[in-house]
Amino acid sequence: MLKDNLVKKSCGCGGIMTLHMHTLIYSAKIKITHVPVYTCGICARYEPLPFIKKELGKLIGELGETPPRRHLSFADRNEWASVLKEAFTSGQFPGGMTELEETINKSIQGRIDVLLDVYRLSAELGDHQWMEETGSRLSQLTLQSAESAK
Prior knowledge:
Blueprint: E1 8-10, E2 16-26, E3 30-40, E4 46-48, H1 53-63, E5 70-73, H2 79-89, H3 96-125, H4 128-149
Parallel strand pairs: 3-5
Antiparallel strand pairs: 1-2, 2-3, 3-4
Helix pairs in contact: 2-3, 3-4
């Protein structure tokens, strides 16, 4: 049995779902690019990463039932999507899924380090709004990282 990890997991059909960036179309008018999803190569089922579902649902809720035509990048709104977009666009991975996962893990740690520096600076400046925004961005990465470490 496949042990689920960040770049692949088991599908209900018995296949293997792999991680990639997907474009979702909402209400036939909204194109949401850079949505990290798992896709099964056998049954073609796809599902968003569990730790982005809440933010994706929030975005769709904000769009309303009759949104105007537009194009959005989920990576502009979610730290996981942003880190994964950067990792996927950084090049090809001759080492396969293992190399991709290592690249993603390094990218996550790098982003956490940057956000901690930004948080520290915003605290030194006494900018509470910036601290709150940075803390929210940081929690998107650190909460999932803590869960996967268990």
